[in-house]
Design a protein that fits this description.
single chain; alpha+beta; 2 helices
Length: 104
């Protein structure tokens, strides 16, 4: 099983939707652009948001077991996926890449 590198690529924020639909919350996300995580297959990396992990874990699991070429040529790197968390107010985009090394 391969390790996967997960990199925070971009963070968006939709203030118009937040103002109209969301109840005020104090702190919604700890992610930072450029932040990286290493996943060992099914195991959520420390510090990874639960909701983000729910959105990406099936891709991480597939990549860690040598899957590639999702959706017939979607990604330039066949051993990667670009996945966003499911927060409709402040989505975060993550690049997931299979590494050449195996998990311990």
């Amino acid at each position: 099983m391969k390790k996967c590198k997960i990199t925070v690529m971009k963070m968006a924020r939709y203030d118009d939707l937040i103002e109209k639909y969301e109840n005020p919350i104090e702190h919604a996300c700890n992610m930072k652009v450029g932040q990286t995580f290493i996943a060992n297959g099914w195991q959520k990396p420390d510090g990874m948001c639960d909701s983000a992990w729910d959105s990406m874990s099936s891709f991480v699991m597939a990549l860690s077991h040598n899957a590639e070429d999702f959706y017939d040529g979607w990604m330039k790197n066949k051993k990667s996926a670009m996945i966003s968390c499911n927060d409709g107010f402040r989505p975060v985009s993550f690049l997931i890449e299979a590494l050449n090394e195996d998990a311990d």
